[in-house]
């Protein structure tokens, strides 16, 4: 089992690395998911997620895609998009993933080697995005 610290990692790059590890059979424990970064203009990112949450099927709205407000569930949903979750291999991979807010088990966390974050870029954290979407803890 690998325990990953999500602090100051870029969401897409970290998610793709986690998806590869899950499909290779490793168990992944992702902590501090609320401090993962989405790089880009915060206003446009927020608007994209607001419109994504409002999308509905016209005939049967209960079959619409679900996008959660909770940071840990949102990150898990994004990782699920990178795994073939409708197949047995993907379902088994998603069972090996644990995403938590903070580090409640006080585990030794490792940093994943992905591209470095440029501090000059604009960004928004998952925690801030979820608060803007209506999550209150």
At a glance:
The protein is α/β, with parallel strands linked by helices and 137 residues long. Helices cover 38% and strands 12% of the residues.
Could you explain how this protein is built, in words?
- The chain is α/β, with parallel strands linked by helices and 137 residues long.
- The protein has a single domain (2-133), classed as Ribosomal Protein L13p, Chain: A, CATH 3.90.1180.
- Helices cover 38% and strands 12% of the residues.
- It is built from 5 helices and 5 strands.
- It has helices at 11-23, 42-54, 71-80, 88-95, 126-133; strands at 2-5, 28-31, 37-39, 97-99, 123-125.
- The chain has a 3-stranded parallel beta sheet with strand order 1-2-4. It has a two-stranded antiparallel sheet with strand order 3-5.
- β1, α1 (11-23) and β2 form a beta-alpha-beta unit.
- It is globular, with a radius of gyration of 15 Å.
- The two termini are 29 Å apart.
- The model has no long low-confidence stretch (mean pLDDT 93).
